[in-house]
Amino acid sequence: MASPQMVMYDEEFRQINIVIEKLLREANAKVIFLVDKNGQLISGVGEVERFDTTSLASLTAGNIAATGGLAKLIGEKEFSILFHEGEKDNLHISIVGGRVILVVLFDNRSSLGLVRLRVKKASDELTVIFDGLMQKAEEKEKSGTTDFPFAEITDDDIDNLFS
Amino acid sequence: MSFINYASREINCKIVYYGPGLCGKTTNLQYVYQKTAADAKGKMISLATETERTLFFDFLPLALGEIRGFKTRFHLYTVPGQVFYDASRKLILKGVDGVVFVADSQEERYDANIESLDNLRYNLTEQGYDLDKIPYIIQYNKRDLPNAMPVDELRRDLNPTGVPDFEACAATGEGVFETLKAVAKLILIDLKKGS
Ligand SMILES: Nc1nc2c(ncn2[C@@H]2O[C@H](COP(=O)(O)OP(=O)(O)OP(=O)(O)O)[C@@H](O)[C@H]2O)c(=O)[nH]1
Ligand SMILES: [Mg+2]
Description:
heterodimer; A: alpha+beta; Beta-Lactamase; 5-stranded antiparallel sheet; 47% helix; B: Rossmann fold; 8-stranded mixed sheet; binds guanosine-5'-triphosphate; binds magnesium ion
């Protein structure tokens, strides 16, 4: 496999949510999403119900992938921050720890300056959590102590999915 | 690369439909979308040109059910088949768990199939994947057309390693779910092996 299996555990999930909930308050944002670079939603806080989070995650990842491709073409490593300004709502998209995408949606109750400042701090905290998560996943894999449920999958389980 | 979330008890896998321009990749996803119950699917997103050619990707999220207490989700993507969109195709392949190669059975698309399959293998290698090692299925589409080549010939040239393959007519839906099921199954078996 090209890159290690992406996993999430309860403990880290809680830690991550604490960080992005704090960011939501401090940046006066409407909603915040964490998305994996492959387009899968990791977590979301704020007015999450108002959005189609799955689509949002996929398009965000596509957006980051496309601008990443552009960056390479002009000799940059990547554009680590994207900002989209709308009439009412704005999107601040940034890459955290090289592998996850942090999406902050805010309106005129906040400002780009404030969001940028708070995102920077939150990113550092998230990077530590994700580094730890990677390490933990690798250790679990090496020691063979994963609580991976798939070892017990039967053909019937798989067939039942499509019935 | 699948994503296993122990916190929300979910597993997400990415399936990419690859193949030459106009072979029927988008049509496959549209059919799956039409025939899937509302509670098992999300919105289908198509980033397409004004003439309905895929520009960046189509995306269809499916939540099929649970396995061993884990919600199993598949994210279906198509690539743009037109040759000059190669940079986009590479991006879509990132993090792929399983590939469906949709071949266009028409005689005049023979070269386009071969070229696209070479391109798939090359682009995967660039991302660190080996087509012979990942879950991979072939679909011979457009079987309904009078100029469709015999399956034996297609198989000989497009499927020398004998991966699971299916005949289809995506326009009517024939073979579409068989193809999807087969690749999903290979992905889950692959995950099982990895554990
Ligand atoms: N006769 C017939 N036509 C088909 C079949 N599958 C797809 N088509 C038609 O072929 C055309 C192209 O299909 P698409 O699904 O858009 O092709 P695509 O592979 O997504 O093409 P790109 O986005 O350019 O890569 C459409 O007009 C479809 O209706 C089939 O099985 N039989
Ligand atoms: Mg298409």
